[in-house]
Amino acid sequence: MSDQAFTVPGRFWHRLDDGRIQCDLCPRYCRLRDGQQGLCFVRRRSGDGIVLTTYGRSSGFCVDPIEKKPLNHFLPGTPVLSFGTAGCNLACKFCQNWDISKSREIDTLAETAAPAAVARAARALDCRSIAFTYNDPVIFHEYAVDVAQACAALGVKCVAVTAGYVTPEPRAEFYRHMDAANVDLKGFTEAFYKKLCSASLAPVLETLEYLKHETDVWFEVTTLLIPGENDSDAEIEAMTQWVVERLGPEVPLHFTAFHPDWKMLDTPPTPPATLRRARDIAIKNGVRHVYTGNVHDFDGQSTYCHGCDARLIGRDWYRLSDWRLTPEGRCQRCDTALAGVFEEAPGSWGAKRRPVTLSRFATA
Hints:
364 residues, alpha/beta, 2 domains, nine-stranded mixed β-sheet, 23% strand
């Protein structure tokens, strides 16, 4: 099929007096002349409008454990059909999916799948959910919303793995169709966002508050701790205090380890002790569920009751061990409710990663 077959009209833009068109999807507000692409690479001005050039195209599909997103309080142990497209509306120098998010090669998009095919595949593969991941779904808004609607019709839930860098109108439409999200809070200073992401912190905080106070979307927050950049006690103190004050103590936080990648190859990996220190600070400040990631840490990856400290869900990487929740999602010992979305029993997918080809789901 030609590239034109994957191009659809985009939304959220307006004309400027100087003849350019401004994309209003994200706070970058790219101003484009005919034929120009936004920083995200996938939204382009075409004539008197903006088009999405990657509709129905993906860098690949894979069945993952839901904990890999990471989501620890959303259908634990279940498989999730994961996929992304290409491009990104941030420019993070530490991007660990840079081959996808910073791709400028259409050949990266090797798979094609209409929204209905994604939904059928998820159900046929016994996935309780699909995840928009690997790159940010904000930039393929129209495709993501259509996929979400197709999934909802078949009883499949939708997960967004996102940096939360989006403007209010598309944000409201997007999250009407999402069941869960993991939001990357990349740092907690404007200086960090400007220096390392070419972006701004404030819109991300607005997205987090919007999710908490104006939606029913279950969400968790992830921060990749980078040595010397966003891992100071002062920054972690400020961030975790803000989370408790503005989002509440029940929102799970994930502190994950950086490894050298993309344009930060000379920065050392995050020591496990840094993650443990961050977890201790967050717990001290009242965050009830704090996790460590990208390292082996059974205690830091397991879920505990905030009422009696019992281990409710044991995790060895992505494999579940202990399960001490009632069918209603409460602690078996003290009956304290665990915040999240749970079923009567956990899934048994484990740590498997299964690449899949969607061509056989093209028709049904």
